[in-house]
Amino acid sequence: GKKAPPNAILQANFKFEDMGIGGLDDEFSAIFRRAFASRIFPPALVDKLGIQHVKGILLYGPPGTGKTLMARQIGKMLNAREPKIINGPEILNKYVGASEENIRKLFADAEKEYKEKGDESGLHILIFDELDAICKQRGSTGGGTGVGDSVVNQLLSKMDGVDQLNNILLIGMTNRLDMIDEALLRPGRLEVHMEINLPDEHGRRQIISIQTNKMRTNGVMDDDVDLDELAAATKNFSGAEIAGLVKSATSFAFSRHVKVGTMAGISDDVENMRVNRDDFLQALDEVQPAFGVSEEELQ
Ligand code: ATP
C-alpha cells in the first residue's frame, strides 16, 4: 500500500539551545525520547518494532518552572500545527454547561483529519493547563456543580477513543499532582509522568543567561553584573521569578535615567541606560521566591 509519512517531522535545524528553556535538558531529553521520538519514524517501522505511540504525558511541579514553555517548544520542534492550549478553569467557568461539548470540539479537528488522511495526518497536540481545576469536583458529593465530573468523564472517553486516532498527543500540566484524578493517569491516557522542578544553580545560570540575552546583545547590561553571582543569589527562584527579577532590575535601571520635568518626562540619558549590579541587588529585595525551602533552612 501507500507509504504513510511520520506524524511529525523534526525541524532540520533544531537545536535545544535555541529553545530558550534553561535547566531542563535532562527532562526535555527524557520526554522527547519517551513520548515524541516514535512520531518521527516511519509508521511501518514503528509498527514492525511493536511500538505504540505514547498518547499523553503529564508535566507536574511548582508554578513558573517552564512547563508551558516546554510543551509549546516541543510542538514547534515537531513541526506540529500550533498546539491547542486549554485552560482548566476556563473550561469549567467560562463555558459551564457546555464543557463537555467544548471537550468534544477540541478533538474534532484531529478526528476529521484522521478520517480523511489516516496515518498520513499530521500531529495534533492538545495542552491542558491547570488540569487539576477540572478534576476538583469529580466524586465530590453535594455542593459542587458536578461539572468537573462530567468534564473528566468526557475527557476520559475522548482519550480512550484516541486509540484509533494515531495523530493526537495530549500534554497535561499541573502544580497539584495530588489533585489529578487517577483515572486520567492510567496507561493509554496521560501515561508518561515527568516532574519539572525548581531549577538548581546551574539551571538558574542558564535561565538568567536566556532572560538577559537581548539586553546583553544590545549592550544594555553593565560589565559589573555577574551571572554566576546572580545564579547563586536566586536559590528557590522559579524560571518565572527569574524573569521577574530581570524585569525588576531593568525597571530600576530605567527609572534612574528618567528625569521628571524634561520634555515628555524623558531625558536623553535613557539611550545610555545600563542595567548594573546595584539594579539587580535592588531587584533581589523586591522579588522573592514563593516556593521551596532551601536545605540550609531545614537544617
Ligand atoms: P504554571 O504552572 O504557572 O503554568 P509553567 O511551569 O507552565 O507555570 P511557564 O508558563 O512555562 O511556567 O513559565 C512562565 C515564564 O517564565 C516563561 O514564559 C519564561 O519566560 C519563564 N521561564 C520559566 N521557566 C523557564 C525556564 N526553565 N527557562 C527559561 N525561562 C523560563
TrEMBL record:
Localization, UniProt:
Cytoplasm
Instruction: Name the protein family.
Output: Belongs to the AAA ATPase family.
Job description of the protein: Required for vesicle-mediated transport. Catalyzes the fusion of transport vesicles within the Golgi cisternae. Is also required for transport from the endoplasmic reticulum to the Golgi stack. Seems to function as a fusion protein required for the delivery of cargo proteins to all compartments of the Golgi stack independent of vesicle origin.
Lineage: superkingdom: Eukaryota
Please report the organism this UniProt entry assigns to the protein: Jaminaea rosea
Q: Which residues of the full protein are shown?
A: 297 to 595 of 852
Task: Give start and end of each AAA+ ATPase domain.
Answer: 53-200
Q: What is this protein called?
A: Vesicular-fusion protein SEC18
